[in-house]
Specification:
This protein is mainly alpha-helical. Helices cover 46% and strands 9% of the residues. The chain has ten helices and five strands; from the N terminus they run αααααβαβααβαββα. The strands form two sheets. Strands 3-4-5 form a three-stranded parallel beta sheet. A two-stranded parallel sheet has the order 1-2. α1 packs across α2 and α2 crosses α3. The chain is globular and about 60 Å long. The termini are far apart.
């Protein structure tokens, strides 16, 4: 069997679920079925792939992502935002991954996570308030427990009862999982794949449409 991208994808995804603590071991385990006896994955290849998938080299942002964050944290920092409720909006990320790698990837893409114990005069110095990952919490989507853990992470930064809105592009792991956890859910459906399967009010085609949804939703 040859190690083609299509052959590697399934074992990579399966192994990534099984071994979340060490991406290097994920890489070695992914390639091991394709190696001859006594062969090993070189340290150079492991280091190269580890760097690639821990930085912007392995990922690409949609064109509307950075304008979305820019508009959101600009609104959160203005005086008018306190009247509309936008100043109290916090942005978090829930991911089936490990926190250190998520932060590294986001930072290399130009999306900055708030550092613990660091407060800004305005919210323009960071884009994301908190990160909750499966490695850090011990649970992964679609389990409601990772959403419960995310609430606890959020509450540690700012107390009070809030409305929680989860946004993602997976019908099962994002949209339905959020609803089952008691959150509001919005599905980003860029290709219109799920049109007619869920209420139109909970489906958006892009991030500008999501921005309007956030403005219209109830804030804490």
């Amino acid at each position: 069997m040859s190690a083609t991208p299509s052959n590697l994808m399934l074992p990579f995804l399966v192994t990534m679920r099984r071994i979340q603590s060490d991406l290097r071991q994920v890489i070695r385990s992914t390639f091991s079925p394709f190696l001859s006896d006594n062969a090993a994955v070189s340290d150079e290849l492991v280091a190269s792939l580890f760097h690639r998938f821990s930085s912007s080299e392995g990922y690409r942002l949609y064109d509307d992502v950075m304008p979305f964050f820019k508009q959101l944290h600009n609104w959160r920092s203005t005086s008018s935002a306190s009247v509309s409720g936008l100043s109290q909006v916090r942005v978090g990320i829930i991911s089936n991954s490990d926190g250190q790698r998520v932060r590294s990837i986001l930072d290399s893409l130009g999306i900055h996570v708030k550092e613990a114990g660091h407060d800004c005069i305005t919210k323009k110095c960071y884009d994301v308030d908190w990160v909750a990952t499966s490695f850090d919490t011990g649970f992964e989507k679609p389990s409601h427990k990772i959403f419960d853990s995310a609430k606890a992470v959020d509450a540690s930064s700012l107390g009070g009862e809030c409305e929680y809105l989860h946004v993602g592009d997976s019908l099962k792991e994002d949209y339905h999982a959020a609803l089952e956890a008691g959150w509001q859910g919005v599905l980003i459906d860029r290709d219109g794949k799920y049109k007619g399967e869920i209420p139109e009010a909970t489906r958006v085609a892009n991030l500008p449409a999501l921005m309007q949804r956030i403005k219209d939703s109830q804030k804490c």
